[in-house]
Amino acid sequence: MLKESEKARADFNVDTALADGVAVVRMFLADRLGLFLQGEEAMDRIDDAVRKLIEVRGPVGTADVLTVLASQVASLLAASAGPDGDPEALFDTVIRAQIDMVRRMNAIEKERADG
């Protein structure tokens, strides 16, 4: 993750906080297929990478990364919603869809475990 952050810093000529945010978003985008195909394994890889990044950056860096990620998500939502759309409504829809998907996946896993 640190290498990706340094690459983002060089690619975009930005500060460390923004580079960290870009690296995390890039990791999510690169692993998006993995998130759908491998579920928890892909999320665990991302979680581990982000934890390592936060350990290196410390508490101040953590706040910076979260702020940058939140601003990037807000920007993407605004762009996706379009000029007449509602980014908050789109965000609610995306979150609800993700929660529904997780609940369905959990129910399927429970069904498989029960036999």
Strand content: under 5%
Structural class: mainly alpha
Order of helices and strands: HHHHH
Give a short account of the largest sheet.
Answer: none
- Report mean pLDDT, rounded to a whole number: 81
Helicity range: over 70%
Shape: flat
Number of strands: 0
**In DSSP terms, counting alpha (H) and pi (I) runs of 4 or more, how many helices?**
5
Low-confidence stretches: none
Q: How far apart are the termini?
A: 40 Å
Gyration radius, rounded: 17 Å
Keyword list:
single chain; 115 residues; mainly alpha; 5 helices; flat
Describe the model.
- The protein has 115 residues and is an all-alpha fold.
- 90% of the residues lie in helices and 0% in strands.
- The chain is built from 5 helices and no strands.
- The chain has helices at 2-12, 16-30, 32-38, 40-81, 87-114.
- Helix 2 crosses helix 3 and helix 4 packs antiparallel against helix 5.
- It starts with a helix and ends with a helix.
What topology does this entry show?
Layout: H1 2-12, H2 16-30, H3 32-38, H4 40-81, H5 87-114
Helix pairs in contact: 1-2, 2-3, 2-4, 3-4, 4-5
Describe the structure in brief.
The protein is mainly alpha-helical. It contains 5 helices and no strands.
